[in-house]
Design brief:
It is built from 2 helices and 10 strands. With about 210 residues, it is mainly beta.
Amino acid sequence: MKKIIPFIALLSPAALANTYIGIEAGTADVKSEESITSKDGAIDITPEGSDTVIGGFIGYKFENNWAVEFSYSQFSSEDSITNKELNQGIVVEQELDAEFDANQFALKPVYFYPLSENLTLKASLGITYTQYEFSSSYEIEYDSVLDVMDIDIPVAKSSNDDDAFGGIVSVGLEYNVWDNLNLGANVKYQQDSIASNTQFNISASYYF
């Protein structure tokens, strides 16, 4: 019982005063700096494109419209490319596939600027730490024009992990819909030495 009491105290209104939590989801337009090239150099691929991003955040708001916020989000990107050539009646098809998954953590100061009684502008600039998991495959397929031969040869398959520090900027709007519950939308841009992404998110947050 003595161990439970301090935990309950941490969840009391006094301990949670000025803090807020939230969730968000949206789309991310991802561009990667990592590229993969076929063995003969004929084709290369860079995993990039649009994907769903989901995340959450927790913050502490000071009395002067400033806050400090910690957030987590995850997203991925994938791409594939195929190159076909006809050589002495044989169709040679090379296929490259590449993808990565990202887990991103961000720490940033946030400024709240009231636009009206219920509408607030929220802007932030901070640092990110992102863990990337890359995977790729390279395959060559030989098909005869007369369909008497069909051979698939996996040439290479690899995976590796990497991480990087970067920066992030965000601007958005929050609308107080009921009591301490806010709904909002924001745009973010994040970049590091491995990849960059532009996000559009909708969010829900609760202020204690």
